[in-house]
Structures are given as structure tokens and as C-alpha cells.
Amino acid sequence: MVAALYALILGPIAAYLVFSVIEIWITYRIAIHKRARSLLFVQASTEVTHTLLVFAYAQFMVAFSALLVDIGARLWWPVALLMVTLLVRASLYLLLFYREKTPRWMYGTLLVSYLLGLFAIVWGLAIVVPAIITRGFTPYTGDMGLVLTFGVPALALFMVPLVAVYKNAFKQLRK
């Protein structure tokens, strides 16, 4: 059960990191070709990938709540940085999508928010993983039956719109 829990936490985080890199690349391509309406893909994919992050975060908070007492203060800065980058990114999406002519610096700022968000996640993992290893911490797995019954099928179903969004985005970029 512990291995399944780690997979349900680290799998969505790894997927989020991979999809964020793809979003960074696509945002860069949109900025080069000045296709503001193509930004709709980025908004949709970001919403979907953030759901992966929320799923992993919820699993982590339940399973590692006892560990958070020890490392919570050290996690404040990476979590705060991640939240700020998400808010900045959301604000930029509104500005980029609803303007006729988008200044190039906004795309640059969007890319910086992606990179800082990725940095915040890696920073948080760099605090959590050593704390788990050095303390020999065993996570709470009492709810894993429920998570495996409903969470895994939900994640699998979740991948259907994600694949559709990315396929459409790559098709649009090839035009």
C-alpha cells in the first residue's frame, strides 16, 4: 500500500512537471508565431495539469500530516512561491487571451511564471524527500482502499481530455 501511495503522489507530480515543460514549449511557440487565440490550449491544459497537482497535494496532506509538523515551516516558502506563480499565470492568461494585440513581454512573463512554478515544486520535493528518508517516516495508508477504488479510475478517466487537449494543440501549432 505504501508503494501505491507513493505512486499516486509522485506519478501526478511527475506528470505535472512533464506537462508543464510541454506547456512552456507550446507557449514559446505561440509567442514566436503571435497566435494569441492558440493560448486557449494553454489555459485548458493548465487547468487540467493543475488538477493533477491538487490530487497529489491532497494525497500528500492526508498521508504525511504527521511529518508536516516537523517540516511545515521549511515548506512555507516553496508553497508560497508556487501559489504566487499560479496567481500570476492566471492573471496573465486573462490579459493575453482578451487583448487584441499582446505585447511580447507578457509571454516572457508567462514563461518565467512556469519556470518559477517548476522550481517551487522541485524545491518542495527537495525538502520533503530527504525528510522522509532520514526519519524513516511511514505514511498513513488507512484510506488507500478508497483511493485505489475511486482515485485510480478517476485519474485514468482524467487522461482522456488531457490527451485530446494536447493532440489538438499540436495539430494547431503545425498549421
Q: Would you give an account of this structure?
A:
The protein has one domain (2-174). Helix content is 87%, strand content 0%. It has helices spanning 2-33, 39-63, 65-97, 104-135, 144-174. Helix 1 (2-33) runs antiparallel to helix 2 (39-63), helix 2 runs antiparallel to helix 3 and helix 3 (65-97) packs antiparallel against helix 4.
Mean pLDDT across the residues is 81
The span between the termini is 46 Å
What is the helix/strand order? Answer: HHHHH
List unreliable stretches of 5+ residues.
Answer: none
Global shape: globular
Number of domains: 1
Structural class: mainly alpha
Q: What is the β-strand count?
A: 0
What profile does the largest beta sheet have? none
Strand content: under 5%
